[in-house]
Write a structure and sequence with these properties.
By secondary structure, this protein is an alpha/beta fold. It contains 18 helices and 19 strands. Strands 1, 2, 3, 4, 5, 14, 15, 16 and 17 form a 9-stranded mixed sheet that branches. The longest helix is centred in the C-terminal third of the chain and has 19 residues. It is globular, with a radius of gyration of 22 Å.
């Protein structure tokens, strides 16, 4: 029998239910699927296959799952690094509004290319992204051979775009991109968050979800103190109560952040079968509120909630390193509580199989097992920093970086080999990004160079920002806080 791909003599971390680890293993791939995972036998290097990969000195493991991210402003990596929180949010709000108008589409398109290139090279084979105009993202990731969940974000209090227009866009995106590129690209429904959406928008979201029952609903949930305040202004007890009221608290819900969740929130989430995307680095970097308010990941996992890791806005904290999110999750949880919140293998699972389950595709990817789609990465561990190679899971979550990824396979296709990306023109992507940034600098007077980031004045940045939506948002929150205080 002839195979498409054979990997032999590798360390194989299967991440199956037994966390099986082969010290010298062989992986057989045919028609995009894993057909066998076993101990290497004499002669495996001579198996007939289109590609025979000598895995000596390599670790084979499932591709990483980035369960929550945003992509369009990727070229602005480094632009926000040294701002304070309010300065960053002010500039971001202005930029998102102009992205919505299509003014910086050239920047977004270059950003999708750059994000796909860097995530691919760093072992991320699947992303779940919420963006303003994600059509170019779906095309870019699809053509690069990657997996992706995409959809336009929807809000009636964050900007002034007519709600009918937003839902029309969502339907158009679903019709055009859902289940395309051999099923690797899927559409999602994306109410932006629980602090800038009215009950009416959530109800319309529920109607859209009922119309497309196989789509995930991806949102920011219990991220800020304002989350439950807005829910009360919408006539609900809290955010989860509102989602339950409208019929969205179920196993299709992917809730990013979940920082403010209490024990009752955890119970209700577990009962509903919803999942959580945990993004530690972005909150370690910006930390709104000043307190160490941390997603209760150990309690969520103990309750049976699927929790995956996400990198969120990588251009806010200057990192494409999803391996690093596992280390950051451990450090932040230990700082908030005490040491020993996670084992290394638990963190590996959150990067892979639990991330896949978070997105509802744990039966297809996330572990190296027969009949699963072959999403595989090979790590080069023949380096001094991995010597001695003891406790492999700990090395993966504490020591591995994207530069250690040597080969990437998605759906049985080799998209990177010997650290060379095969499905994208790396130099062309870099040139396009440089061109887009030069144009952005000229159009905005935002000077980005090797010395740092010098944004335009606050007045210039905020001129002509949307008024109706944000004014309503702030007014509703202020009124509800006054009402809450009057009930104390």
């Amino acid at each position: 029998m002839s195979y498409d791909i054979v990997v032999h003599d590798a360390y194989i971390l299967t991440v199956n239910d037994k966390n099986q680890l082969y010290e010298r293993g062989t992986l057989l791939i045919e028609n995009g699927r894993i057909t066998e995972v076993r101990t290497t036998k004499e002669g495996d290097q001579h198996i007939s296959a289109d590609h025979v990969i000598n895995g000596d000195g390599m670790v084979a493991m499932p591709g990483l799952i980035n369960t929550h991210t945003h992509l369009e402003m990727t070229p602005l990596i480094g632009a926000f690094s040294d701002f304070d929180l309010m300065e960053m949010m002010g500039h971001m709000t202005a930029l998102i509004d102009r992205l919505e108008d299509g003014k910086y589409q050239y920047l977004a398109e270059a950003g999708y290319e750059l994000a796909a290139l860097n995530f691919l090279a760093g072992g991320v084979t699947t992303v779940n992204s919420q963006d303003v105009h994600p059509s170019a993202a779906a095309k870019t990731f699809g053509e690069a051979g990657l997996r992706g969940f995409f959809g336009p974000m929807i809000s009636d209090l964050f900007w002034d775009v007519p709600v009918d227009e937003q839902f029309a866009r969502a339907r158009e995106f679903i019709d055009e991109y859902h289940d395309t590129y051999d099923g690797r690209i899927r559409a999602t429904i994306n109410p932006h968050d629980d602090w800038s959406c009215t009950r009416e928008l959530w109800e319309r979201t529920a109607d859209l979800a009922a119309e497309f029952p196989d789509l995930l609903v991806h949102t920011h949930l219990l991220e800020l103190e304002e989350s439950n305040v807005m829910a009360r202004s919408n006539g609900a007890k809290d955010s989860l109560d509102l989602l339950d009221d409208v019929g969205l608290l179920n196993d299709r819900l992917v809730a990013a952040h979940f920082r403010l969740a209490d024990d009752d929130d955890i119970r209700r989430t577990a009962d509903a079968g919803a999942s959580v995307a945990h993004c530690p680095s972005v909150f370690c970097y910006w930390n709104p509120g000043g307190d160490i308010q941390w997603t209760p990941v150990p309690e969520l996992r103990a309750a049976g909630v699927d929790v995956g890791l996400g990198i969120d806005d990588h251009y806010w904290h200057d990192s494409y390193n999803l391996f690093g999110e596992a280390r950051q999750a451990r450090l932040a949880a230990n700082l908030k509580r005490s040491a020993g919140q996670f084992t290394s293998m638990e963190l590996v699972r959150m990067l892979t199989i639990e991330g896949a389950r978070t997105l509802g595709i744990g039966d297809k990817i996330g572990s190296l097992e027969p009949d699963k789609h072959a999403d595989v990465i090979l790590l080069d561990v023949e380096k001094p920093k991995f010597t001695p190679l003891t406790n492999l899971p700990a090395h993966i979550v504490n020591n591995v970086t994207p530069s250690d990824v040597e080969t990437v396979i998605v759906d049985g296709e080799i998209v990177m080999r010997d650290s060379n990306v095969r499905t994208m023109n790396s130099e062309g992507v870099r040139e396009a990004v440089e061109t887009s940034i030069n144009r952005f600098n000229k159009e905005t007077s935002w000077n980005l160079d090797i010395g740092g980031s010098n944004p335009p004045s606050e007045l210039e940045t905020t001129r002509n920002l949307p008024k109706r939506g944000p004014v309503q948002l702030l007014g509703r929150l202020a009124f509800q806080k006054i009402k809450d205080n009057s009930l104390l």
